[in-house]
Amino acid sequence: MLLGAAGAAGTTVTRGVWKWHHERIVRGLGPRVAALTTGFDERYRQYVLATARYVDVKGLATMGFAAPELDDVYVHVGLGPQSLHKAASALVGGEYDSPSRRDIVDFLDGKEPAFLAVVGPPGSGKTTLLRHTARRACDSRKRRRSIPVLVVLREHWETIRNGRSLAHLITSSLGALSAHAPPGWADHHLLQGHCLVLFDGIDEIARVEDRKAVANWIERQSREYPRNDFVLTSRPQGYREAQVDGAQLLQTLPFTVDQVRAFVHGWYLAVERLEASDPLDAVKARSAAAAADLLTRLESVPALVELTPNPLLLTMIANVHRFRGALPGSRADLYREMCEVALWRRNEAKGLPQQLSGNKREVVLRALAYRMMEAGVQVWPRDLVLAEFVRVLRRFTTTQGAEQVLADITSNGLLVELEADQLAFAHLTFQEYLAAAYVRDAHLVDALAERVDDSWWRETILLYAAMVRGDEIVAACLMVGGADAINLAFECADNDADLDPELRRRLSTWLRATMDDRIAMQDRHQRAQVLVVRDLRAAVPLSPSVSLCLEPLSDDVLANTPVTIPAAGISSATASALAKWADLCHRGRGRSVRLPRPDEVANSPLGSADTGQAIWVEDPGSRPFLWWSGDRHPHLVTGADILTQVDHDLDTPLSTAASEAAWELRAALAVSNDEWRFARQLAAMPELAQWRATDEPAFVADAWAAVASAGAAFAGWRLRAFSELASAITPFIDHDRVVTGETARSIRILGLILARAAEGGLRNQLIALTSVITLLEQRAGARALPESVHLAVEKRA
């Protein structure tokens, strides 16, 4: 026994001595190793470039025959400093303390080594970021740290658990290439500070105690080789349980609008180049058209747009669009794939253990989603969530408890903890989809049929109708009636090619019947509401938050709307009222409806053509005013216009005094040929607001009566004459009365006679009034461009 103990002790001492001598030998051979590694370094870089060449698409249900190359589709993953307790863990959304976006290279390869912990929700691009960073390091020979080391932690857990060094891990992971590595190659570069060490996915180590062991091992390696850069990635929850001392915490940031567009165009070009042998120009043209089609379709479905800042979800959307067909018709299939990928597909592809199958996890979440929809909430207390999990888990044979299942699901980003003991789905879309799947599986369509006029259930009903035939839903909508239910019926019919032909006929009959002038006004209003909502669905995106209807409100809508349309045309007040009415029609869809802003019209297809059209627009906090395209304002009345009208007026017998004054004025106009502009909207003239008395003076039916009130002779000009004339013209400007030729002639001649006798500002105001009545006369005779109302749809704040 003594000899055995002595032998064991001797062996231990021998191993310790050998390790000490080995390290001294390796470090002493530094210059020789450096000489030997010159060729191997390049071979190693080529190995890393090949390893990280392609986009990682493991676990996606829909993909092409080959993955695109990473460099062709990579979009900069922005990073920002973040406190760990506020780090976003949901697939979409989250809080971000810093608005600035930094590139990871801004933190690396400095004089002082860096240690970064990059956290982010599932699918936010952490692995892609490390793979691309490794490739960039290979291409930079002048870097301080040009030897990238990419370590997927879950693949090296055994090596780490056995206490092996980072140098050993690197060498052992090279496969066949390790046979060509010079002795001490990895240790030499680590000791010299030549390496950029990238640790991916500490959160993918299953048990918390194992995760902490890995964190401790990483800390030891950073102390053993302190001259290198280290980067560690994790989901926030996994890092909270296994933090690494000394690491600077950074949060991945969601894609911006421009980045979404750049990714879609880059991804489509890469895929088309893989799958087509056409000339490059043809491939580029086809990919650009396909990318534009996807972006346009996305913008018509706000719920999808809100998912695109997550790179993984955006990749899935692009894959489904490219390889499965059109969006948004396949939304239900798309959401199904998103849930599957988040819950189990990615983990299964990575070989991670899963005690509860992915399908069972989804069953648990479906039940929870339906209960939350019934309660009319997006946030539920933790104890109620656990109680629902316990109820569903009783149906399964599993050793996992509700707490374990909840921890597992929240780590995947579909369900998130917003604050202490309050949970919600990462996006309302997932709650609505999972609730629809629960209705399908539990055969609860009757429960949906009772809610077809409830806006809270609208998306769930649409998603259910996309999973199965929508006959029962459409029939229920027709039975309930009402604009909301009928709109839902039409939308279900648009997305269901297999809808019962008899139901389609009934929908068509409903639309035709409401066109009959003999039906009740309430039914006509309902029809207008249905029509305007259908028009709003065709709005063209200007940005992720705003879309614009390129077609104006149709005569069909205007004829049936509850907003009174004056006989003389649309005024600013009318345009504002129409926008408010359309917003009420569109309630419950997460979007608001308003008049467009001038810049939105100018930057849209409406502003690209010199059509001379006039469109009601509105800046925040202002009254509506007219935007027009082209050089000539739609309310421009020139001296030549007045001359034409005065010539026509003189053909009509007038009093001697009026005729003489008109002829004198015509001569003056012919000489000066000045242009008189009235460039403001008809109902928002600041001057008119000042001219109107507070007691609302009575309308002077005969404009010539204003002359009598001021005196037959104009030698004693008084402001009252002008005030009475302004009062006479106000009802025409407000579109309360239609201008006739006789009225226009009377007011025009009177205004010009008064202008002849006036001076300065009053003269200009009288000429402006004359221009107004001339414009209104032209509009009444369809000789001037009418204003139109286009609507903008905006995501609600």
UniProtKB/TrEMBL annotation:
<dbReference type="Pfam" id="PF05729">
    <property type="entry name" value="NACHT"/>
</dbReference>
<feature type="domain" description="NACHT">
    <location>
        <begin position="114"/>
        <end position="236"/>
    </location>
</feature>
<protein>
    <recommendedName>
        <fullName>NACHT domain-containing protein</fullName>
    </recommendedName>
</protein>
<dbReference type="InterPro" id="IPR007111">
    <property type="entry name" value="NACHT_NTPase"/>
</dbReference>
<dbReference type="InterPro" id="IPR027417">
    <property type="entry name" value="P-loop_NTPase"/>
</dbReference>
<dbReference type="InterPro" id="IPR003593">
    <property type="entry name" value="AAA+_ATPase"/>
</dbReference>
